[in-house]
Amino acid sequence: MKSYLRILGALVCLGIIVLLAIIFVPPQLTKPSEQLAADWKPAPGQGEYAMRMADCAACHTAEGGKPFAGGRAIESPMGTIWATNITPDKETGIGNWSLDEFRAALVDGIAPGGEHLYPAMPYENYRNLSETDIRAMYDYFMNEVPAVNNAVEETALSFPFNQRWGIRLWNWVALGSSGFKPETDAIAKDRQLARGAYLVQGPGHCASCHSPRNLIMAEGGTSSQDDGFLSSGVIGGWAAPDLRGANAPAQTWSAADLKAYLTTGRNAHTAVAGEMALAVKDSLQYMTDEDADAMVAYLHHIAKGERLAAPSIPDQSLSAPRQLDQATDATSLKLAKGVGLSEGELLYMDNCAACHLTNGKGAAEVFPAMSDNSLVVADEKAGLIETILYGAEMPSTAKRPEKLKMPGFAERLSDKDVAALASFLRQGWGNTAGAVTEADVKAVRK
Amino acid sequence: MTDLPGRVSRRGFLMGSAASAAFATLMNPSFSHAQVELPPLEEYKPVFFDADEWRFIMAACDRLIPAEGEGPGALETRVPVFIDLQMTGSFGDASDWYMAGPHQPDASPLFGWQSPLTPAQIYRKAIPLFQEWCQTTHGKAFEALDAETRDSALTALQKGEVGLAPELRDFFSILLQNTKEGYFADPMYGGNYQLKAWTFIGFPGARGAYTEWVTRHNQTYPLPAVSISGERA
């Protein structure tokens, strides 16, 4: 009995020592992945471009706020995380940070002084950033971004998530090795694919939304070697759709359509909405043609199985009545005839058909198609419901500046109406998603 | 007296109307839950007209678009509510008209609005004068006359035989105009209750597009009328 207690006591002591070590021994910081000359300087615009690709603004610029001055609330399952000020202001920003400290924040998630950043900062992905991109971004933030004195709200999560040392344990389990290495020889040998893989896995941090989170909230897959990589995730109740399945829109679309979607926020089939609209507005639209082609080539390269063809688009050169007359599927024919419609179908005719048309195809680059629309058929129904209630707006991009807008129908439609309408959309034109209930709508209505 | 104000006799909507087949489809009960159900018209509390004025407005509308004959009447479609609400808006107070004068009330009607009074002021001043004329001429208030006499009184008013001052001259024409407007305007303005006027004439309402119907000729449009707010007939 005594020796049992002694062993127990020793274990407790050991535990305390380990815990103190976890809390107080500074973590090892990742070394630069490449040695650049001390006087290395980025080419003009290189730093801004690297920042665009990493989409720092998406989180660090608040709506209506000064660029990179922080203050945007990032909702997480653990609570609200406030994005910090990353302008070179010495008091409230990162003006005192050395290059090594800047790198540590990006690739290790560690702020100066050893404090762990919450993984809302996608250092799981930024670990892949090249040293040139890190140096270029550092140069950009220190020299080109105007300093803004803006003290943002401190993130204050509830226990145990406010014990930041816990993130160190999380990092041990969750983080892969740092520095980007293409996952296969085929990708490594192809310059375009390798560049695309780097953009997707590194700065683009696509996996932070499009990969599912595993049991410990780490990304379920950080390269195409993992089955979960880019296989769909959830953000703010919206689906971040699967990008790799043979019938995923990102795969069924042509390379030109996928490129148009990423760089202009719209293509022949659909238009961007939700968080992805911010990614297009702040980041993807700035991709060079070469980088956009590389990203598209890589995404199509990592398809799971043979890519299927997208549903056909009506010949846009025909007049609208003739396009509609050519529809042959049951839903389009029934709507066009207008007899014996269900409540959901009637609501579609009263509220939606003027733009999305009875064939549910809408118009290229203007009105998204309803069939195989990832927002419409997603398991997470909040995106569809929110769009019906509050509308959507395309981002203005250099190539397609029009902020085309869908109005919201919150005033016009009751929860019951929205449920009937959304259920119809999820089952019309060959869609096979589950019905939406009044309770689903009530949960989304603000 | 079968057509007391507010007591609307059910008429044969469906009789002999060319729209009867379409109308039967429209009355499918599965659609009707989307309709707005309001308390009866006699329970409506006017926001502009006082009790005497309101009795006149109800009785006059009821003769201008009567309940008998084809289609719904002005009371069934709550036209008086439309007129009452218009009185307190920018039409009633002419707030978006040029009203600074000079006014020439006896100028030819071809010169447009010449009265210094707003439409609401004309209703307010002209109704008691016309009621007085009814008392003098027929011995009763307008709403107490039988239908035939009310029609002849309104005809006299229309022909300018009631002796209204020039600045009140347009009373009948705005009353008739507002009655028609209340009948056919979107229900959001208080009239065209449950889109009955649109349904009667086969107007499909504010559905936004009728694209596939552009090339379909002489076919009955099957869907019920829909209002701007999404209410369906």
Characterization of the model:
- The complex is a heterodimer of chains A (446) and B (233).
- Chain A has 446 residues and is mostly helical.
- Chain A has 3 domains: 145 residues; 117 residues, no CATH class; 125 residues, Cytochrome c-like domain (Cytochrome Bc1 Complex, Chain D, domain 2).
- Chain A is built from 22 helices and 6 strands.
- In chain A, the strands form 3 sheets. Chain A has a two-stranded antiparallel ribbon with strand order 1-2. In chain A, strands 3-4 form a two-stranded antiparallel sheet. Chain A has a two-stranded antiparallel ribbon with strand order 5-6.
- In chain A, a hairpin with a 2-residue loop joins β3 and β4.
- The radius of gyration of chain B is 19 Å and the shape is globular.
- Chains A and B meet through α15, α17 and α18 of A and loops of B.
Give the tags.
heterodimer, A: 446 residues, Cytochrome Bc1 Complex, Chain D, domain 2, two-stranded antiparallel sheet, 22 helices, 42% helix, B: 233 residues, globular, disordered N terminus
How many extended strands of chain B? 0
- Helical region count of chain A? 22
Helix content of chain B: 25-40%
How many DSSP E strands of chain A?
A: 6
Mean pLDDT of chain B: 86
Alpha-beta content class of chain A: mainly alpha
* Terminal residue distance of chain A: 61 Å
Arrangement of strands in the largest sheet of chain A: 1-2
* Largest binding interface between chains: A-B, 24 and 17 residues
